[in-house]
Write the structure tokens for this entry.
Amino acid sequence: MPLPQEGTLTYGQLRSLTTSLLSLDRPSELDNTSVTTQLGSISREPYGLGFCDSRLFQLEKIHNLLQSTQTWLQKEKLRVQAMRKRAQNQSLPISRLPNELLSQIFLFSMNRDNLHVWQEPTLTTCSRWRECAIATPLFWSWIYVDENTEPSELALCLSRSLTTSLDVTIQYPLDKQDGQSSESIIDSFALLERLLMKPLKQIVSITLHNVPISGWVPAHILQTSSLQELYCDYIPPKESGGASPELLFSHTHLRDLRLLTTGCVPGRVSLHPTTFPSLSFLDVSSVVCIENVWGILAQCSALETFTWDANIHGELASNQFFPTTYGLEAPILPKLKTLELGHYACALFLPVAVIPNVETIVFRNPRRRKLTQAILDLDVQTKNRIRNLELWSVPKLSEEDLTMIFTLPTLERLWSDSWQLESLGVLKHLNKHEMDNGDQLYWKCPHLKELELGFDYTLRKKYALPDDLCAALLPTLEALVAKRAQGGENSLSIEVYDLKLELPPHEDSAHWAAVQVFAPEPVSTSNGE
């Protein structure tokens, strides 16, 4: 029985097609029209089994070549798509920035702790960012050290930082049993010390996190003469006793000193400075001996910001903690602008310190000492310069407290995170008393412009916000921010009021009727939505 009539190539056509296919440099040069034409030139003649096998072999070869062409086309498509994406990225505003401005953006991001931006993500973004980062020595001046830091990483940062000043952050790990540092991080610190001993390497800032009270402290680093900022937070020991560590250093260029602790460890660290002529920011807690605090304040004539949270147990009726007990004079701080004090620190600092130019005072958690007494401890010159007052975790404010606050003549901003219902009622009562006695000015805050209040969650139920609250405000008030938060196991709702008041001249009490309030609707959010 003869074979069915199938399309076949003549010998000449098959040889020509094979030669053209084998001579191609790459699949993209394949002429599909030529292939179709030659395959279409078929003479229908019956052949035997041998010719069919030969023809199948040739067709399989052509099929494989076409498949490779399709694979190449797919890769070429992906390559062109990537080129298009790069071209599109180059049209973005950040891609049009010059390298100098891009470097400044890198430095700005690195200098913000809350962004958590380090060198590695920037290097892996794109080739341009990598080249720009490597060409910016200051970008490599932020050095982070923990127990997983490799020596090669430290050496690389130090080599790329060139001669720029260094900002070193050291993260201590904690052993769950004894709270001591592991040997690996101590070895890393020792390596860092050796690398920093090279010429032209200057440290301007050191940050130590989770430092055990009895743990290892890089003494050689603290002795660097170029140090300007030192931040150290300690972890209190689980058991009392043992020798108290000492920080021995003297820096003529130190401007920022912060020694904090996560717990109450009075008198655990002895700080023995000789001189701090340039210190402008001081933040100490119960981790530092009180005697050392008075000693530092006696030498800080240039201090501008002071924060002290002295958690001292026992009665403070005696004078055992005051400067005279240690043979020191009362601190005189003529340049101090911002003061932040905890409960016990108010009783220690305000009665003896001379702070004539302070403008911002922050009181934290004065539960056992009346706020009124703290303000009374200020001299007249200080009261006449206070512009900002912040109250953190303040209990119920009495009429005496509010009266004392609103008699500060230069007060411009008042902030509180826990105004209770009774406090607002007293505030309204005081205002009503003033309106009933128009000739007598009960409040003496002619410059108050901003009032920020944090209410408890039941405030909305008892007082209609913001109308009743606005009726209790001073005529000079320009802005009010009232926040109400209600917390639960599965929900958190927050209502924010941002009010801008347009007030007429306050000639008499009738101006309250003309107050115009422009406020957006309260915004509520919930974790469950």
About this structure: The longest helix spans residues 49-90.
